TrEMBL record, chains A, B:
Domain of life: Eukaryota
UniProt keyword terms in alphabetical order: CBS domain, Chloride, Endosome, Ion transport, Membrane, Transmembrane, Transmembrane helix, Transport
Pfam short name (any one): Voltage_CLC
SMART domains cross-referenced by the UniProt entry: CBS
Membrane topology, as annotated: Multi-pass membrane protein
GO CC annotation: early endosome; endosome membrane; Golgi apparatus; plasma membrane; synaptic vesicle
Coiled-coil intervals, chain numbering: none
Endpoints of the signal sequence: none
Organism field: Oncorhynchus mykiss (Rainbow trout)
Protein name: Chloride channel protein
Length: 739, 739
């Protein structure tokens, strides 16, 4: 505005050399240009460093800039750890509220309620007068069919209430808060922009509705959504630091770390979390980020531990310590579990995707609230009678992983202790174990079916816990079977070697753990990160080999039936643009075979570096919908000068028309560095050198597509231009269909 | 040879379409072209996959090809684990041989010798009649000054003998076997070729001399060389599989995994090993390799464990389990240890590099054998009187990490037990502890000095153990000081909070461990991998925070004094071409500023796609020493067609002259796809389309160098061509000097 009256060409140019607001930013649902973002950050960093020698203030600024990344990580760790703690505590309380209420204060959960109680014998520790089931509270009696029905009804009522609240809140305030969030985060990390997906409303609503959804007893877990919650925290905290607020690439580095934080608090596995982020979700993960993620993951884990949500100074409910070594022969059942996990993983993905596609395409999708209520109702109805489905997913897993100790009162540990009652091992199963086996078998089928319809509903829903639960049940069943087989057939050659009478030889809990890992591996296709997460849960290198055998088998089996993991399948289902980094590009095509436009199509639209008028360029913009235009020396020579983005061009031309006096449609546009002297009579020229990308990426038309795809992946390009013998030919865009 | 008589143009061309032997291979001390290697492998893989549907045999071939990677990893794990076990056992035995010999069999080490003994009380467990010190054996007495002198002399004699053998063997058979090998492996992994560095002679000699060097009592460790040994195993085993034998890029993936295996067996830390490979040595580390490395590292660890070299079913001597939690206030001494570690790391690197440069430039370098003997002599002379320097590095570390238990007989655990003798904690130090402190202080100075001159001598020498020893001594000293301070000043505000009387509040062993990590971090600048290795040594997440605080401080302090870790410093000292992946390219230059030749230099030599004769091209080759030549449409238009490597060109022209009848200097060379019809009278043409790289990488002259360097790193290019407005301009090579 200041230069308006002057009309001096020189002044106007200076003014135009300043960045036009909007140039260099991105629209929603667009991909970022990693190279440009990293260049921007490099320039910023260089400027700060070079300034730092000028004054103490600048030096301090430079130091604070260097440490702002660490500070940000600390804040993310603290906030995410605290949120995870709150979620754990609230979900625990709400889950117990379905069964009863604490008289000494309704905000106590069952366990806390009975802590102050006098009846502290081991068997009776969860029975205390302060804790009253709904039947006791409403009907006065805790026995009999009537009480059972009252409890049943209250259980269903609470479940329906919770899930109704969850789905309503999600729909009303933050539609992005539903689902697990990992497919979208993968897409965002690969460079896509979805505004609001990691915003404050999503964070608040996802936190609240996650608690409600988990408590409602649906077959879902909190682990995936915790990654989303941590990423929201990170994104919001990024706004505190200019460095991260203004640079999409830097922000994605922080988000990668946040994904690690999410898994770290979900499983109490900081190293596993970092590897999960590296293996599963991240796209660009430099070493510096690796190290910072680890820091953030550790801070979060320690924050969560000091909150101590489970009262066992562990971060998760299902931490275990096994004491019995395993034997080589047991690798056979472990590999069987791996096959089961792989089959189930592949099957689950197909069934779930088919169901989700049906939801997208048929009228089912129009009634999300009703769908949630129906599924919750059925789940609650079927799960109450069976104690293994009535308990929450993590409690179930914890129970199944458990290595029966002498004092254990659970049904699964009801072994007949023979003559001398204090030797634990080598006992025949009692009636409790057989009942438990039946119930578990039913629970297995129930979980398998209900998880398929649950994942993808409009409530926050993670997949880790249900998958692990399925695997853990299968594993425990096989483990108990193996145990009893070994017990009854001590003389079998295969067992003789290591199962001497009187010694503990098979740990059913270990089978449950291996099964859980195998199923989770089949569904998500995680490998090393899953092994490390499980390793951090057991805390012993001893059991890595069984886990690894099962996870590898599971991955191979599942891959043979379908290459995609559940997250990739959902990315494809939702049509997000995502360039898979793990798959090799398998076709022997050259760049000239896939570039657009095809040779038969009309020629690609290009701009020339001089001689085009504002009106002509605006015409080109209006006629086409390309996201950018190559700039060439002249229409005849087609020699490439640079590339200009459509968005930058539109903004700059608008800006020139508004702020630069006298710009009309006939004004000439120059992309040259030195504008030739103009006659004073003509309209003023528009100089757009500033928005021209002078270093567009080019490949020759003979470049194999596999190499071109590699360049796209590794450098994070948006587009690449194809040249033929040095002449600009055509262009390929990022999300070419590889078929 | 078959086509010689025919003279038919068509037949000759078919013949020439076959690959000429030698084309596509590399010379020694050259860098590989990652893009070309990966393309080659992709083509091979595609061919096998497409064939697999044709017959059962091809299908089997395709499956065996897919699993050959896993089989190779298994073999590497088994071989490396077994070798590491042998090295551990032999080194243990030879080290003990310096002090005495076992009468029941000279091949028993001290501990094994006394296993069968009857004197099995705890204190006397290492005294048994079968084990005789040299004084007892030679002089008949184990007491008195004479015996001491005999032992002293034999100790020195053995040390000199071992180190003499080591240096002689290295010089005679495998000069590459000296040093730690990690700098060279980093360089090789980044794409450089050093023939024989990972060959069978290097493997054999390095294994033998490593045992000798470690046993000689020099201040060096076996951890770094174990990485080299594992890489040799991998390289040799690669020859069993065509897929890895013929492809330099694939082989480097295997070598990356082998580096993980090396650390896995050195520290019993498979996950730490994989992260070490990822963070410290690898250049190209796709996820598939990550997963395979982990498998190989696990196999190696389990092989080593089943060999059980230390008799404690652990993989390392210094495995520890602490039981006392640490307190927030202790972070202050931990950070102090970090500062010490950083300072020592930076100082050590400078001193060691200065010393190595002196060795390279002065006459010192001419007498490597003498140097080794003198250093061994001085080390043995000074280390015998002090029990902490007399023991081997890992024994020392093990002793320092040790958390004093009640039964511990070591000098460092000689606490005055007060009234009731069975409470361990809160005891004043006894005279033994004070003696130990003095000896440790002396040992600290001795180790610091002697390590500087030892690392870089012509024997296999690792740096991990000496660095850790220095840090562990410093840490233990600080730990004991803190412990006694807390004991004597129970009323100090700072101590009051957590050191209630009668409770164990400070673990000096933990300080030793933190100190060891800090010093190792300062020297190598490892971060996450070091934390994970230490985590796997202690087996508890509890102690990660102290370790992380110390390692981070150490890295920051050391980085402030000098950016390079010891391996990078040695790479630069030896002048290896290595493009550091961690450093940002900090200058704001454009490609046009660094490309060669400069604008003032004569024009770059180019070939044209048609019209040049064999003689002209040979002239160009003779006149220049460029490693490759751009091919353009014509000298006038300078439009780029492709790039041809000097080596390929020389081989092809030689081949054409030898095998293709009638080729003379006047024969025309065509890089075109379709050779224009030639008059029959002229000499036959040479068609070189096959060796032309049709997809050379190009950037524009306005590309910032930071981006160009990024492209070099990420894609692993050898060279990149620079264009100006689509015209081929000039070229930049990989190892441009960034200044």
């Amino acid at each position: 505005m200041t230069g308006n009256g002057a009309g001096s060409n020189g002044k106007l140019m200076d003014l135009l050399d300043e960045p036009v607001p909007g140039v260099g930013t991105y629209e929603d649902f667009n991909t970022i240009d990693w190279v440009r973002e990293k260049s921007k950050d490099r320039d910023r960093h260089r400027e700060i460093t070079s300034k730092s020698e000028q004054s103490t203030w600048d030096l301090l600024h430079s130091i604070s800039d260097a440490f702002s990344g660490w500070l940000l990580m600390l804040l993310i760790g603290l906030l995410s750890g605290a949120l995870a703690g709150c979620i754990d505590i609230s979900a625990h309380w709400l889950t117990d509220l379905k069964e009863g209420v604490c008289l000494s204060g309704f905000w106590f959960n069952h366990e806390h309620c009975c802590w102050g109680s006098n009846q502290t014998t081991f068997q009776e520790r969860d029975r205390c007068p302060q804790w009253q089931s709904w039947a006791e509270l409403l009907g006065g009696s805790s026995e009999g069919a009537a009480a059972y029905i009252v409890n049943y009804l209250m259980f269903m009522l609470c479940a329906l209430l919770f899930s109704f609240l969850a789905v309503i809140l999600v729909r009303a305030f933050a539609p992005y808060a539903c689902g697990s969030g990992i497919p979208e985060i993968k897409t965002i990390l690969s460079g896509f922009i979805i505004r609001g997906y990691l915003g404050k409303w999503t964070l608040i609503i996802k936190t609240i509705t996650l608690v409600l959804a988990v408590s409602s007893g649906l077959s879902l877990g909190k682990e995936g959504p915790l990654v989303h919650v941590a990423c929201c925290c990170a994104n919001i905290l990024c706004h505190l630091f200019t460095k991260y607020r203004q640079n999409e690439a830097k922000r994605r580095e922080v988000l990668s770390a946040a994904a690690a934080v999410g898994v770290s608090v979900a499983f109490g596995a900081p190293i596993g979390g970092v590897l999960f982020s590296l293996e599963e979700v991240s796209y660009y993960f430099p070493l510096k980020t690796l190290w910072r993620s680890f820091f953030a993951a550790l801070v979060a884990a320690f924050t969560l531990r000091s909150i101590n949500p489970f009262g066992n100074s562990r971060l998760v409910l299902f931490y275990v310590e096994f004491h019995t070594p395993w034997h080589m022969v047991e690798l056979v059942p472990f590999i069987l579990l791996g096959i089961f996990g792989g089959l189930w993983g592949a099957l689950f993905i197909r069934a779930n995707i088919a169901w989700c596609r049906r939801r997208k395409t048929t009228r089912l999708g129009h009634y999300p609230v009703l769908e949630v209520l129906v599924v919750t109702g059925i789940t609650a109805l079927l799960s109450f009678p069976n104690s293994y489905t009535r308990m929450s997913g993590s409690e179930l897993i914890s129970e199944l992983f458990n290595d029966c100790s002498l004092l254990d009162s659970s049904q699964l540990c009801d072994y007949n202790s023979s003559e001398n009652s204090n030797t634990l091992p080598d006992r025949p199963a009692g009636p409790g174990v057989y009942t438990a086996l039946w119930q578990l078998a039913l629970a297995l089928f129930f979980k398998m079916l209900v998880t398929v319809v649950t994942f993808g509903m409009k409530v926050p829903s993670g997949l880790f816990i249900p998958s692990m639960a399925v695997g853990a049940i299968a594993g425990r069943l096989l483990g108990v079977a193996m145990e009893q087989m070994a017990l009854n057939h001590h003389d079998w050659l295969i067992v003789k070697g290591w199962c001497s009478s009187g010694a503990d030889c098979i740990t059913p809990g270990l089978y449950a753990m291996v099964g859980a890992a195998a199923c989770l591996g089949g569904v998500t296709r995680m490998t090393i990160s899953l092994v490390v997460i499980m390793f951090e849960l057991t805390g012993g290198l001893e059991y890595i080999v069984p886990l690894m055998a099962a996870i590898m088998t599971s991955k191979w089996v599942a891959d043979a039936l379908g290459r995609e993991g559940i997250y990739e399948a959902h990315i494809r289902l939702n049509g997000y643009p995502f360039l898979e980094t793990k798959e090799e590009y398998g076709h022997k095509t050259l760049a000239q075979d896939v570039m657009r436009p095809r040779q038969s199509d009309p020629l690609l639209v290009v701009l020339t570096q001089e001689g085009m008028s504002v009106g002509e360029i605006e015409g080109v913009i209006a006629d086409t919908d390309y996201s950018g235009f190559p700039v060439v020396v002249s229409q005849e020579s087609q020699r490439l000068v640079g590339f200009v983005l459509r968005r930058d061009l539109v903004i700059s031309l608008d800006n020139a028309r508004k702020r630069q006096e006298g710009v009309v449609s006939a004004s000439l546009v120059f992309f040259l560095e030195h504008v030739p002297p103009q006659p004073f009579s003509g309209p003023p020229v528009v100089k757009l050198r500033g928005i021209l990308d002078l270093s567009p990426f080019t490949v020759t038309d003979h470049t194999p597509m596999a190499i071109a795809v590699d360049i796209f992946r590794k450098l994070g390009l948006r587009q690449c231009l194809v040249t033929h013998n040095g002449l600009f030919a055509l262009q390929i865009n990022k999300y070419i269909d590889p078929m």
